[in-house]
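User: quick one, sequence for these C-alpha cells?
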C-alpha cells in the first residue's frame, strides 16, 4: 500500500468502517506471517488483533507515517514483546526455542549441533541475542530472572560455543 493511501485511511479509521477494513485486509495476514516465527501463531494473532483495536486510538494522534508497512510491523512486534514479557518464565520457552532452533539448523549446521549441547536456558539466551536481536535486559524480563544471571549464562554459553567450534 502506498504511503499517501495508508495515511488517508489512517485518518479515516474512526469515521469510516471501510478504512479499517481495507487496512485489515492489507496487513493482517502479513502481520501473522511475520510474527508467527518469532512469537508463535497465538501471540501473533493476539498482537495483530490488539493492533487493529488500538488503531482507533492511534489514528487520532498519529501524524504522517513515512513507512507504513514498517510502522505496522513495528507496532505489532512491540505489542507481542509486551505480551511475552507478561508471561511467566517457562510458559513459552520450549515453543520459541524450538522454532528458532529449527531455522538455525537449516542455516548454520555445525553451530546448530553445538547449540543443542547447551542447556535449554542458555540456548534460549543465545538465540534471542544473536538471531532475534534482544538485549540481555529484555531477555531477563522475559525469563523473569536477574539481568546478571542472563549476562553470566550468556558469557558461559559463548565460551562453550567458542571451545566447541575451534
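Assistant:
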Amino acid at each position: 500500500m502506498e504511503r499517501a493511501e495508508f495515511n488517508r485511511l489512517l485518518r479515516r479509521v474512526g469515521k469510516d468502517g471501510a478504512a479499517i477494513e481495507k487496512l485489515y485486509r492489507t496487513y493482517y495476514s502479513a502481520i501473522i506471517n511475520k510474527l508467527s516465527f518469532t512469537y508463535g501463531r497465538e501471540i501473533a494473532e493476539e498482537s495483530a488483533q490488539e493492533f487493529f483495536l488500538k488503531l482507533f486510538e492511534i489514528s487520532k494522534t498519529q501524524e504522517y507515517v513515512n513507512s507504513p508497512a514498517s510502522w505496522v510491523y513495528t507496532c505489532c512486534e512491540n505489542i507481542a514483546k509486551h505480551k511475552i514479557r507478561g508471561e511467566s518464565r517457562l510458559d513459552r520457552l520450549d515453543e520459541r526455542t524450538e522454532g528458532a532452533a529449527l531455522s538455525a539448523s537449516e542455516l548454520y549446521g555445525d553451530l546448530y549441533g553445538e547449540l543443542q549441547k547447551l542447556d535449554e536456558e542458555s540456548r534460549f539466551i543465545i538465540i534471542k541475542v544473536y538471531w532475534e536481536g534482544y538485549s540481555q535486559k529484555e531477555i531477563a524480563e522475559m525469563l523473569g530472572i536477574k539481568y546478571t544471571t542472563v549476562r553470566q549464562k550468556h558469557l558461559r554459553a559463548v565460551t562453550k560455543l567458542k571451545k566447541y567450534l575451534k
